[in-house]
Specification:
The structure is a homodimer. Chain A is α/β, with parallel strands linked by helices and about 220 residues long. In chain A, about 45% of the residues lie in helices and about 20% in strands.
């Protein structure tokens, strides 16, 4: 196994991982502005965290900063994109081709971040047989036929009532990681990765914060 | 001010708020299954949390559980949807009509959760003048003309290089809450609400967990 793979396969603490796309974003801004180097205090300052935190987070990649000048911008962008898994393509199946599912397939630009949706599944005859941006939608019964060892990721955008059973169907047929967009707390075996992204929970938090501020002012 | 508004305007702790859409999801499942009541231990068990936590979270709404039978399913669904702000419509402007921005406008179904995008802004001549599902896309210079006191929410889906300046433009012209889909940490005044939803950070965490598990097995 190569050096790069070893790095990628290390478990990185979630807070560090979540900060890395922020570093990447900043580095891209620095690149655009023509900066060749960026220092950890500068990155830290923009993000309002401690410079030692930046150094520690970035030590998970194979790029080290240089005394006085800091990190070389372009190689660090390359390394971070690779490190975060955005440069290699993982294949995924999507379950639930409603409004959110269609959006993820059609417009989202997930491919540039390393996720390729290769098929969609639903039970609605209106969407079965359709193709969105080249991605065909099948009846969910076809899933067992179409799954193969390259597909390890399942995206869950079904209605809440069928979220748990759909997750179980995925897992029983070889899915190892579920990107769960439903607000349901999935019960899964320990060896299965679940990433929860409940947009409506975020929306609820935003509404509450906005309306409570409004009532004060 | 009515009773309902008072409730809505109270600041609810974020963890409680984030759990509420899960409760809502469960209640909808219970309703579908024909259950008239659901107990807090049952909700707690499915979500793997303590029943007292459920009771405490739900005490922020105006519905109380009844001894022995628990919560009446239908009224609690109504109340939670209202409490979470999903029943009244907030207007929003969206900035950055790329792949993600288009998806949010076109397919996402945000309206059923109380968010209506009434206009999109970009600088790309290919999208300016377009209409997606009835939502017109304008040049960003038109924003100052079109903003009005009803629009308090701005959705930020611009490229990272212009995220901070776009946020400032929004705030300078009356936006009070920013739903930030970029990985950039925005610097904003204290009275501005920022809700960060970095999908690519979630993706990065999922990739890391999946690939580190794979390398172990």
């Amino acid at each position: 196994m190569g050096k790069e793979n070893k790095k990628k396969n290390r478990v990185v603490p979630e807070p560090a991982l979540r900060r890395m796309p922020c570093y990447l974003a900043q580095l891209k801004v620095a690149k655009k502005e023509g900066q060749k180097y960026i220092s950890s205090p500068k990155i830290a300052n923009i993000m309002d965290i401690d410079p030692t935190q930046v150094t520690k987070d970035l030590s998970y990649t194979k790029i080290a900063g240089k005394t006085r000048v800091g990190y070389e911008v372009e190689p660090l962008i390359e390394e971070l994109e690779d490190f975060l898994g955005f440069k290699s393509l993982d294949e995924a199946f999507l379950f639930g081709v409603g409004s959110l599912g269609t959006a993820l397939i059609r417009d989202f630009g997930l491919k540039q971040f390393g996720l390729n949706i290769s098929a969609g599944f639903d039970i609605n005859p209106d969407v079965i047989g359709q193709k969105y941006d080249g991605v065909e939608i099948y009846h969910v019964d076809k899933f067992k036929e179409l799954i193969n060892p390259d597909i390890k990721i399942g995206i869950l955008t079904v209605p809440v009532e069928v979220a748990q059973e759909t997750a179980e169907l995925m897992i029983d047929n070889g899915i190892k990681a579920i990107w769960n967009f439903t607000p349901v707390i999935l019960r899964v075996p320990d060896n299965i990765v679940v990433q929860n992204t409940s947009l409506y929970a975020h929306l609820a938090v935003m509404f509450n914060r906005l309306h409570s501020k409004e009532s004060k002012s």
